[in-house]
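Illustration 12: ATP-dependent zinc metalloprotease FtsH.
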Amino acid sequence: MNDITPEGSNLPPEPDVRDQQGPLQEGLKKTSSPSNESASKTSKQQRMPWSLILLVGIAFLIIWAANNGREGSKVDYGFFWKQLQDDNVTDVVFEGNVLAGKWKKVPENPEKETDKEAKPLEETFYTQIPHLESDRLLEALAASGTENYKDVTTQISFGTQMLIMLGGTLLLMLFFLTMMRRSADPMSSGMFGSFTKSPAREFKPSDKLTTFDEVAGMENPKTELQEVVEFLKNPAKFQRLGAQIPKGVLLMGSPGTGKTLLARATAGEAEVPFYSINGSEFIQMFVGVGASRVRDLFRIAKEHSPCIVFIDEIDAVGRMRGAGYGGGHDEREQTLNQILSEMDGFSQNDAVIVIAATNRPDVLDKALTRPGRFDRHIVVDLPTKEGRLGILKVHSRKVPLADDVNLDRIAASTIGYSGADLKNLVNEAALHATRNGKSKVMMEDFEAAADRVMMGIKREDVLSDKEKKMTAYHEAGHTLVAWFSPELDPVHKVTIVPRGRALGVTQLRPDEERHSVGEQRLHQQLAMLLGGRAAEKLVFNEYTANASDDLKRATDLSRKMVSHWGMSETIGPAAFRHAESDPFLGKEMHEMRSYSDTTAHLVDQEIQRVLFAASDQATNLLNEHRRELDEISEALIEKEIIDSDDLERILGKRVDWKSNDIAEGES
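Figure caption equivalent — predicted structure in token form:
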């Protein structure tokens, strides 16, 4: 039983050339001032370091020493041996395991047989002597009477070996000296200094960035950010009355609600440079690198002001200090300290706006979210119906839709969807239509896409007759309890086709936006969750493992009702929360439980009482409608998928939660 899904946002295009026209011309000229130009020329015209010249010279010396200035053609040892037997070799010189000499008569190059363009052999030659071949070669040279035979191995190889050893030692010394010099100056450029440079990506005003017109369903956040745009375009308008624009804007919201999209749209509207970086890109295994990257990022931002710096997933580096391992010497904390220092270091005249996004505002350090750093907090909620309709229109612009597609109806049936979910829904519908060879996307493609997104793809499992029957009664139990629980959402579809990780799914689809949950609805939801298990016990007199996920969800919900929301007369109006934060913060390691063992035992007993009451409620409802339970199960076994129209024929019209009147179930 599922009803909700994920979200996402588009990535900006690659940067091209800066546009210095328009109202920001004066501000952007700061980057092209004579002093900056001369500084950049100086940095580009740095002299070649002496160490690099020395390294190249030593490398050439080693290569020369290896060859020892040898001239002539290199030949295979087998070819040389044949020429030696033919008495065509003279002036032989041994140089270690290399033999050099002259031909009495220059032979034909043996490579001519395979390569017509092979060069002819020279008068002199050299070849590599194989191992264990020295004695046989000396005997052959003595027997052939070769003229001017001599061995200079000792003289030549000693000098070569000394040069190679000296050169290798110098290379290692220069390497370590270079490493030490670069590490002593973390902001230096070069092969090692660039490691500490900021990896932020720059998108300039001339790039084709997103604007607010392309962001649908987020009117309130856009209104808040419009002030930031106005300040970047015309700062004098605010400074005239002594107003100060927020230095930082924190975007908070669930994953996929469009926080990154909003930041890019803000930069696109303001027509200023936009620097984007992910929080995890600051952190490296070397201590101090993150802080150096922060310094470099803010230095570049100040040089190119007015501009926007966007830090995505700031919780990766901005988590509260003093929690978990590492202490003050932790690389993450050092990076956070540098961010705090840089944001406080802006003067009021620095037109640099820092926009950060996170879906975990509860783990951020208080020093980061205080006024003066991130002054403005903007919550990016899930879109309303009008917002979902606008998002569907944006993502379906390039999708050919059939006449039966009703985007308004799709928007009404996708409560709880984020922008990324809707984009995925449109894409899945287009893919479904393509697989079926259609020229346009139809309404049935959107229905199939919704099933795929919420319930997963169909599995290839083939259930036995007994498994099929037990699954049918399990889903029928969920369905019947939900149908006769007026506070719950209407049942949209029931299936016993294995999808995702489930053997069957009962899909409820909300028909209205809800922002508050009452105790009565929660008790009915618990009964519905335990309805499948109750049906198994009622019909087969045994429980199966199919209810494992239902039990987990029901237990979590009942624990929140009892210990978080004060919905128990026994516990009363008290909240007993423990180990609620995520384990990575490490807070539970030093926080003691704030209530006694007796209270914990009482909470557990009350949770058990709530669950037993919900199970009894489901069992009584199934006993009361046993005939309808069997009919739903038989219809599922026969069709495998039934919708609200089929249920209405079996169960009659559903009781609406908004009144005591009888209302039709959603189709």
